Amino acid sequence: MNHVIFAPIVLPLITAILLMLLAGRRRLIRSISLLSATALVGVTACLLMLASDGEIRLYAPGNWAPPFGIILVLDRLSAMMLMVTAVLAFFSLAYAVRGHDAPGDRLHGMVHFLLVGVNGAFLTGDLFNLFVFFEILLISSYGLLLHGRGVERARSGLHYVIVNLIGSALFLMGVSALYGITGSLNMADLGDKMAKLDPADAPLAATAGILLLVVFGLKAAMAPFYFWLPRAYAAASAPVAAMFAIMTKVGVYSIIRVYTQIFGDNAETLANFAWFWLWPIALVTLVMGLLGALSARELRVQIAYLVIVSVGTLLAGIALNREAGLAASLYYLVHSTLICGAMFLLADLILRQRGELLDHIAEGPRLRQSALLGVLFFIGAVAVAGLPPFSGFIGKLLLLNAAGANDDALVLWLIVLGGSLLTLIALSRSGSMFFWQTKDKIATAPAADLGALLAVIGLFCCVGAVTVLANPVLDYTQAVARQLLEPGAYLQAVQQFRVR
Amino acid sequence: MEVLVAVVIAVLVSCGVYLLLRARTFPVILGLTLISYAVNLFIFVMGRLRSGAPAVIGSSDTYADPIPQALVLTAIVIGFAMTAFLLVLSLRARAELGNDHVDGGAAIGEKPAKPVRPLEEDEV
What's the pTM? Predict the structure, then answer.
């Protein structure tokens, strides 16, 4: 067993506990927090190299053999997700340590607890543990969302918490129904049991599967379960909103994992039943997100709707259930997570220079650093909308290419290309209001902090790197897709796993 | 026996859903609590109903499935913590919003909420 696999859970956990104990010593907390995030980037890069050889590595924290013991599984997909999370966390925390973690110093500890939950969810090979890690990431996200004061935060926090508690109840029902049918909770073993399922039990298993789809859809903010997202993300503080860009992707990841591993090609009567539902839902999510982005009155709400648009695009690619579609979606996932995080941070820099207007899309004073922020906003808008030369364009191009040539593809082409146009219109509306249609008076706000600016620029550079290194990244995501669509290897790895 | 338990779960869930759809935070929390009771019962029942069977192999002729019992313990603990958190949150929302409406009283026709202002470093 390779103990590095456990590190992405243990490292943030120890850091979080340490940071909680150090309450009050702000400078120390900030340095430890950033240091730990840097170390996490290193660890996940190491895991990414490890996983890139295609072998599926297992780790049994309690030293009990699967299917009864709890296992962590490191394959290409989880390594990739861990890496994206670590990079996003590093830049969010780098932004936060520049005085944007007010009030107090609790934010850092909670971010690291969130990382425990997110990393655990990406690593676990056990459905019930997925639930437990979901709860860890949710309770820290509740804390993060409500961190600081504000009426709007209390209101959107209440919605967010209630919606997610209902989701947790449904998750438990789905998981325990699957256990009741198959007597297993291990994902690989469940996939094996699904292949040998008694046809009489199939409707019940399908019900459990749909319940899980609802739960993951709630986390991923797919239609019609996205109403909690715009308010919550717009009310959160900037580093938190940027971190939350990965949260919807946890839902997307769970959908990919569960419906390729448990209800994948092998699952006899239930093989790939989820894609039938996912396809129309993905398209509706896309359209609703676009309408929201067009009608948003604040920049942060607009970006939150663009997160929903990216989820719709991702789900559409996954629902194609082809290797090419999955690979394109995973590429787009990396791009959209990083760019949405960057846009939330940038929105915070912009609104700090607009006085009382904040990010309200209306005529206001001229920004102090209009040129610099304007250029960044322009780059961000082009990347989010999926125009060349950035990675969003490559992702969308691959997605449209993967759709093939049929009626479904025609609908996808229309919505995705129209969506790019509408995203651009929405962002140019807010951008021109912020940077061009301004009063002569310059806002009295201080210039943006250099460290915070560098954090935003760093995230943009990561998006740039995903663009420039598109070929190796794509090779990797294609390998991920191949591995996912052959659940046999995963099952074999679990069956042959022996604890010492 | 199975039918009775199924009916109990169904009644708990339907009462929970009814309460969830209420407009005030307290009934909503009660609804969530009822639903989590139903879910706990459901998990427990998924190990099949059997009386007089301990969850230990070898201590008697029959034994009960121990895994759902472990799962339900975890679910109870998590559900308990989440309910406690939600209670505190709804008290805070009541204090900040001035009412206990789940939408914070901002019903149709009212002005939309103002964007949230970020706090400065030394502001508490």
Answer: 0.94
| pLDDT single digits (tens) B44-78 | 999 888 888 888 888 888 888 888 999 999 999 99
Among the partner residues A149, A159, A360, nearest to B115 by beta-carbon distance: A360
Using an 8 Å CB-CB cutoff, list chain B residues near A150.
96, 116-117
Contact B116 A104 (CB under 8 A): no
Q: What is the mean pLDDT of residues A50-68?
A: 89
Q: Is A21 on the interface with B (CB under 8 A)?
A: no
Angle between the A228-235 and A299-319 helix axes, to the nearest 10 degrees? 130
String of DSSP letters for A266-303: T-GGGTTHHHHHHHHHHHHHHHHHHHHHHH-SBHHHHH
Whether residue A238 and residue B36 make contact (CB cut-off 8 A), yes or no, is no
The residue-averaged pLDDT of A403-411 equals 85
| DSSP one-letter code for A201 | G
pLDDT in tens, A335-378: 999 999 999 999 999 988 888 888 888 888 888 888 999 999 99
- Enter the tokens of residue A467: 């663009």
Are A103 and B123 in contact (CB < 8 Å)?
yes
Q: Return the sign of the alpha-carbon dihedral for residues A384, A387, A391, A396.
A: positive
Which of A98, A158, A166, A349 would best serve as a mutation to test chain B binding (most B beta carbons within 10 A)?
A: A158
Nearest-angstrom CA–CA distance, B106 and B109? 8
Q: Under an 8 A CB cutoff, do B82 and A139 touch?
A: yes
Q: Is A353 exposed, middle or buried (0-12, 13-18, 19+ CB in 10 A)?
A: buried
Residue A238: CB atoms within 10 A of its CB come to 25
SS3 A310: helix
Write the DSSP assignment of A57-104 as a string of letters. EEE-TT---TTTS--EEE-HHHHHHHHHHHHHHHHHHHHHTTTTS-SS
The whole-number pLDDT of residue B120 equals 67
Question: Chain B contact for A360, CB < 8 A?
Answer: yes
ipTM here? 0.91
Return the residue in B116, B121, B122 with the most chain A beta carbons within 10 A, the one to mutate for interface testing: B116
Query: Which residues does chain B have within 8 Å of residue A298's beta carbon, measured at their own beta carbons?
Result: 115
Give the residue among A158, A143, A334, A162 at the shortest CA–CA distance from A240.
A143
Residue A53 CB contacts under 8 Å (≥ 6 apart), including other chains: none
Size of interface A-B (CB pairs under 8 A): 130
Q: Can you give the pLDDT at residue B1?
A: 83
Which pLDDT band, with edges at 50, 70 and 90, does A394 fall under?
very high
